What we know:
It is built from 20 helices and 21 strands. It has 679 residues and is of the alpha+beta class. It folds into four domains: 173 residues, 2-Layer Sandwich (Beta-Lactamase), CATH 3.30.450; 146 residues, Beta-Lactamase (2-Layer Sandwich), CATH 3.30.450; 143 residues, GAF domain (Beta-Lactamase), CATH 3.30.450.40; 137 residues, Reverse transcriptase/Diguanylate cyclase domain (Alpha-Beta Plaits). A six-stranded antiparallel beta sheet has the order 1-4-5-6-2-3, with helices on both faces. The two termini are 68 Å apart.
Amino acid sequence: MTADRGTGTSIAEPMRVEALFRALRTLSADLELDELVRATLHAATSLFHTPQASAWVRTAGKIALQLTGSEGLEEPLVDGIEHLGRSGGLLEMGALADGKVQVIRCSERADGLLDVYAASGIGEVLVLPLVVRGEVVGAILLYGAAGRVWSDSDRDLGALFARQLGSVVSGALLLADARSDAARLQAVQELSWRLNRTQGVDAIGEAIVAEADKLIAHDTIRVYRIDAENAMCEPIAFQGEFLGIGRPSPEQLRMPMGKGITGWVATHNEAVRLPDAGSDSRGRRVGDLRGAESMLVVPMAWESRVLGVIVVSRDGYDHFSDGDQRMLEVFASYAAQSMVGAEAFAELERQRLELANRLERQHRLLEISEQLLATLEPTSVLGKIADSLGVLVSFDSLSIFGLDYAAGVRRALVVRDPDAEAISAHTPAIDAGLNGWAIAHGESVLANDAHDDPRAIQIPGTAVVPESLIVCPLVADGVTVGTLNVARMGADRQRFSPDEFELARLFANQASIAMRNAEAHGAVRVAAEHDPLTGLRNQGAFERDLASTVGRGQPFALLELDLDHFKAFNDPPFGLGHSAGNALLQRIAVALQDTVRGSDLVYRPGGDEFWLIIPGANRTSAEEITGRIKTAVLRAGVADAPVVSASVGIAVYPDEAATTTELLARADEAMYAAKHGGR
Length: 679
């Protein structure tokens, strides 16, 4: 098994990178988890040229990732990896521990699937962990046919794909959880309405048993009331069967306070969620041994007094999630209120509205994330970040700071604040203030009284006013590259809520990805427009720039430069060879750039040919520049070697040519004449 080099994607395959970003933009629009998994598998198999892939996602509260989709895999392999994945024995799942891209050679497998992989013709598996804020939320497994070796480029591209996809999957999981919670809270509302109109403790227990399957899947359910006088948990309703017993009697289910898991919950007023109840030392088994049994036990309490206990169980290991526990606890609280005749409808409505607001904000965050990921211009992505956050969290002031590690200071990149000038001029030390604390600890900060916080510093030239502040580190590839600050000012300011703080943190994570995407896109574009030998702009850049320069309609000169005797310098028997020729071309490129102005553009389309665009030049100034260029080329030569000089053709816009075609023809004719003794 080999690990990811962690270098990021290579710029040697810009077309694959562009395809990856297009795929990510499409995937970001998929808010439904099932559709996202399907689209992800399709995108992954296309990007990495393999017909076989599988997707794994960590659902809330689960220990192991769950197989959520596959493409091109035969049924025996799907069955095998799904079974081992649930139990934690699948080699690929173990490879996710460090959160890095891994390659697993099937010939080295030790998880019992060697023959199954061999029969499927698979040689290597590329494991792409989906990591969000240090937590593995899923994985994409790509299966290479026997004989295929996953290249460094594949791994680099896979690392970038996984990093971006992790946040998309995390957002989809958040949305799915929110929708599930909303539906189940609606069910709680309906059930509590029924409970509040049910008379008698036993009838309430029966109603809970009859309706609980709308909230949580289970094999058995028990409802107890607490007999405080006799310190007993008395069963009032039951559904399901125990192995070897069938339907138990009330006597078999009765439990003293403090005994068994039920009695412990009744005594401590704390919910218990167990992946395997049989392995808990507090348990008292009812029925015969059946293997692992998941159990969820929640108290029904009113004003810190436990009135009853609800117990649900399922055959198998770790079937209940955090969401299941939350829903059952909510239901139990309303059941308790029903048992004392309390009305809880107002609280339920508050929770429903809060969840609906959370769902709406998650929708907005996903929409904004898609827009950010689609912004690939480094110069505009910061402005997009500043404009987008206000849709999610209102603020009076926003600042984005970059970290200059060489100078040891923070520098303002974007400031939306009445004191923008003072903030932009201030360059505090990286470790200073609340920003410094957030950077040093790698954590976001919520300071609703930032003006009184001992970690805070006052920016010179700004007034001391009451302030609520959120500071979020911007992290790219594990390195903090900046901070995002939002503030509300004034004595009557509204404090940031925990939900707003969490939204700002999630947004900062998406902003970091967008900044990294823009930087990577910029690097790919620069590489695509420049000659790799000299670093000068290439033929494609020349053609675009010439057309745009003509389109502006301002005078300029076009110079075509062709080296004389370069072949003699390169080739035997008197030449120095191609390495020396390449070095000469590099020196000439530097000489040309040093000779012209910063606004002048120099190109190398290929070979020993160069082009220059000189804005504002006429015939006289172009000829003067040509003389300096010829001298610079001669000085770039090598002693005791054939002398390389330059022939230069000039075309002046608009005096001598009015179109790109005419300019190119005019410069070419002039260069030919210069090379063969003409003007």
